[in-house]
Specification:
Blueprint: E1 25-31, H1 38-46, E2 54-59, H2 66-74, E3 80-84, H3 90-100, E4 105-108, E5 113-115, H4 119-129, E6 135-143, H5 147-156, E7 161-163, E8 166-168, E9 176-179, H6 180-185, H7 196-206, E10 211-222, H8 227-243, H9 251-270, H10 277-293, H11 300-303, H12 306-332, E11 346-348, E12 354-357
Parallel strand pairs: 1-2, 1-4, 2-3, 6-10
Antiparallel strand pairs: 3-11, 4-9, 5-10, 6-9, 7-8, 11-12
Helix pairs in contact: 1-2, 5-12, 8-12, 10-12
Length: about 350
Amino acid sequence: MEVASSTKGVPGVPAGAGRPSALAVAVVVPVRNEEQSLPALVASLRAQTFAPSEIVIVDGGSTDATVEVGRRLAGGDPRFRIIEAGAATPGRGRNVGTAAARSEWVAYTDAGIRVEPTWLERLVREVERDPALEVVYGNYEPLAATPFERAAAVAYAAPKQERPGGRMRGPFIASSLVRREVWRRVGGFPDLRAAEDLMFMERVAAAGCKTGWSPTATVWWQLQPTLARTYARFALYSKHNVWAGRQRFWHYGVARLYAFALVCFALALAHSPWWLAVPALGLVARAAKSVWRHREGRGLRWLLNPARLLYVVVITLTLDLATFAGWAQALLSRPPAQAGAGGPSVERRPDGGRAGAD
C-alpha cells in the first residue's frame, strides 16, 4: 500500500510531502501542560517531507489549555487524533497512543521538541534500505539560545557518539521509529513519569531487536531555561528514577562522590583545611571533562572559556543537589498509583467531538 496519495490536499502538508512508500507511520506524542510548546511541535510535524499517516496526541491530564490548543492546531487535518487519557504518565501515554494507532510503524517524539522537516523521511529511509530493521533511532540536538542553555547542554546533554552513518546523540526515544510488533513483544512502556524511555529501550536491546541508526534524522530538544527550573526538573526525574528502582544507574555514583567529599571534610577538620580543595577540584574536573567531551572540533578558545566552565560547575552542583533532593522525596513518600489511575481514555476529533473510548 502506498500512503503518499492520502495526504494530498490536506491543509498544512507541504507540497511534495508524502513520497511513495510501502510504510504507513503513526507519530505518537504524550503531552501534559504543553500549551506553550505544542504549536511549534505540531507545525514541525505538519511540515514533514514524509507525511505521517496519523498523528496521535495523548494528553496526560493537562490543567492548562493543552487539549484546546491541540484541537485548534489540528483542525482540518484528519490525520490528527487527540486522546484524553486522564492522569497518565508519559509511559502510559505512549502505550495508549500506540494501541490506538492503526499503522505498522510508530514514530515517537515529545512535547518541548521541534522536529526537522526531513526527520521522519530519514528514519523511514533506513527501513527502506534494510527491511529487516525493527527499530531506528534518530539524532537529537539541544536548543541552546542563551549562555545558560549552552552551558546546560554541556552539563547534561549526551555527547555525540560514532554510529553507523555518522556521529549522533542517542538512542533517544523522542527521535525513534519502532515497529508496533516490537512494542507488543517487549510489553510496552513502563507506566512511569521518568526512566520509562530508558527501560523500554533496554527491553528492546535485551529482546535482540535489529536496530538501525539515522544520524541525520534530527529533533531539537528545548532545555530548561533557568537554574531553578533545571533543579525542579531533575529533582522530579530523580524521585521517579528511585521509585523505578534505578538508583544504581545514577544515584549511587553521585553518592560515592559525596561520600569521598565527606572524608575530605573530616580530614580538613582533623588535619588541614587544604583537604577541602580536593572535592572542589574534583567538581571542576567533572565540569572540565563535560566541556572536553562536547568540544566537537572547537578550538582552545572555546575549551578554555572560564565563564562557560563556571556555568557548567554551577549546573553540575545543582544537578547533584537535585539528585539528593529527589532521592529523599522518593524515600519519604509513596509512588502514585499506576496503570490507569486517571480513568478511561477518551478520544476526540480535532473539532472536539467524541470519537470513542478505551
